Amino acid sequence: MTDTNTPLDFSYETQPARIVFRPGAAVSATPDEAARLGLRRVLVVCGSRGEGTARAVADALGEACAGLHAEARMHVPVEVADRAVEAARAAGADGCVAVGGGSAIGLGKAIALRTGLPLIAVPSTYSGSEMTPVWGLTEHGAKRTGRDPAVQPRSVVYDPELTLSLPVPLTVTSGVNALAHAVEALYAPDASPLVSLMAEEGVRAMTQALPLVAAAPGDLDARGWALYGAWLCGACLGATTMGLHHKLCHVLGGTFGLPHAETHTVVLPYALAYNAPAAPRALTALARAQGGAEDVPHALWALAGSLGAPRSLAELGLKETDLAVAAEQAAGQPYPNPREVTADGVLALLTAAYEGREPSVDA
Ligand code: NAD
Q1: How many angstroms is it from 176 CA to the middle of ligand 1?
Q2: pLDDT of residue 334
Q3: Considering only the top CATH level, what class is 18-163?
Q4: Whole-model pTM?
Q5: Measured CA distances, 328 to 43, 325, 344, 347 (Å)
Q6: Domain 168-355 has CATH 1.20.120.530
Q7: Bridge partners, residue 135, by sequence
Q8: Which DSSP helix (H) or strand (E) runs through 299?
Q9: Which residues does ligand 1 sit against, CB inside 6 Å?
C-alpha cells in the first residue's frame, strides 16, 4: 500500500536471470534454455533422491548433456564440491544444470564458483537458492557462505510438476523457509518498494497455497501457486540482506546440525515476534498478506502447526544446554536487524522456540 508520507530513499539492483514457469517445463523448456545460453555440453547435477527427475531432464537435453552427476548433499561439503568440479572438467562441460532442492542448486553454484560455468536451475523445493548469488560450502563442520554474481543461475526453470512428489511435511517446512526470506526482506536495511511488493505477494501466495497443498498434495494449481510464492520469496532473498532470523538458523544449522527448512519453520514466529516492535511497516504488510491477521507471528505459528509442522527446537534435537551457546553466537556477530540484538533477548527468544511456546510480541 502506498504511504506517501514516507520519503523514498533506496537502491535496487536486478541480476540478469530468465525465468520460465509452467507445468512440464523441466523437460520441455530446459533444452531451449541451454540453447539460448549457447551451451552444447552441460553437466546435470542432482542429489541421489532426485536422480529420476534429473535423468528425464538429461534425456531431454540429448546431445547437449555431457553427463549426470548425482552426488549433491546438504550444505555442500567441500569434498563433494571438489568431485563435482572434477566431473565437470572431465566431461568438458560448458555449463551446468542443477535439478533439485537447495542442496542440488548449491552444488551447481559450487561448480560455477570454481569454474565460471553458467548455471541453469530447475528447483524442486521452495528454498529460493535459485534466485540468489549466494553460495555455501562446508568444511571441517563449518559452513562458509559468500555472494558472487558468477553463481547466480542465468536461467531458472520452474516446473510445478516437479514439486508434486514433495511430501507434505517437507512442503510445509520448505514453504515456511520461503516465507522467512520475504519476512526479513520487508525490514532489511536494503529493502526497496519493488522488493516489498514481491515479499507481500510471495507471503500471500504461499500462505494461501500451503493449506490447499496439504489438503490435496496432487493439486497442480495449488502446487503452482506455492512455487510462484517461492520464486518471489527467493527473489527477495537475492535482493536484500537477511537479519536475526537467518542468523539464528545459520547458527542452529551450522553449529548444532539442525535440519534447514524445519529450523526455519520453528524459529520464524519467534524471530518475527522479537522484531515486531521495531518493524511496524513490515508487520502491516504481513498482516495484509495474511488476510488482515491481527497477530502476525501467532498467525504464522498457527498456520505451520495446523499443517503438522514441528513446533519446538527440542523436537528437532537441540539440547537445553545448547541454548546459551547458540544465543551467544547469534548475538556475538549479529546480521543487520531492525531491533537491537542482545544476548538476553536472543536467549529468551530461543528458549521460547525450544519449548514451542505460543509466540508473543513484547515491546
Ligand atoms: P534439500 O535440497 O536438501 O532437499 C531436502 C530433501 O528433499 C532431500 O532429501 C531431497 O532429495 C528431497 N527433495 C527435494 N525435492 C524433492 C521433491 N520434489 N520430491 C521429493 N523429495 C524432494 O533441501 P532444501 O531445503 O531445498 O535446501 C536446503 C539447502 O539449500 C541448505 O544447504 C541451505 O543452506 C541451502 N540454501 C541456500 C540458499 C542460497 O541462497 N544459497 C537459499 C536457501 C537454501
Answers
A1: 13
A2: 78
A3: alpha beta
A4: 0.97
A5: 42, 5, 9, 8
A6: no
A7: 146
A8: helix 296-306
A9: 47, 49-50, 74-75, 100-104, 106, 124-125, 127-129, 132, 134, 136, 162-163, 165-166, 170, 174, 237, 260-261
